[in-house]
Amino acid sequence: MNDQTVFELIHAMEQVTNRMIIKWNQSFNEGLGISHILLLSHLKRDGKIKPIDLAESLGIAPSSISHLIQKLSKRNYIIRIPDLNDKRISYLEITDEGLEVLKKAAEDGHQLQRNTFAQLTNEEIKQLIVIYQKLNFTLDQL
């Protein structure tokens, strides 16, 4: 693969990702971004967690996670729960309101997925998943 092809490939992948994010943001009118939804999804899946551990798990800088937490807390989508033994430590937990907005985000995301991948066969979708998994594994090894 020549260098120009590598950059064309990266650009094409980036375009698809960016356009999917834009389309999702246009359909999901809650004023939240993908990172907010990923944070809520993590809390739903894994339960309460310390903010620093959440930042590490999501691969987000602690300063960025603070901004996400602040916005989600203001909207009552998450709550802070103090540690009973150490008042300096708090945990984050998703609320019922957070579960509702996460449900709406998932519905919008599924519709975008159906629309975006409608022209691909099931076999092509499986191949795409395998390719991205291989690429992610390779990048982890570098």
How does this model look, in words?
The chain is mainly alpha-helical. Helix content is 70%, strand content 7%. It has 6 helices and 2 strands. The chain has helices at residues 3-27, 34-46, 51-58, 62-74, 96-116, 122-141; strands at 78-82, 90-94. It has a two-stranded antiparallel ribbon. A hairpin with a 7-residue loop joins strand 1 and strand 2. Helix 2 (34-46) crosses helix 5 and helix 3 (51-58) packs across helix 4 (62-74). The longest helix has 25 residues, at 3-27. The chain is globular, with a radius of gyration of 18 Å. The chain starts with a helix and ends with a helix. The relative contact order is 0.11. Residues 6-137 form the HTH marR-type domain. It comes from Cytobacillus stercorigallinarum.
In short:
The chain is mainly alpha-helical and 142 residues long. The chain contains 6 helices and 2 strands; from the N terminus they run H-H-H-H-E-E-H-H.
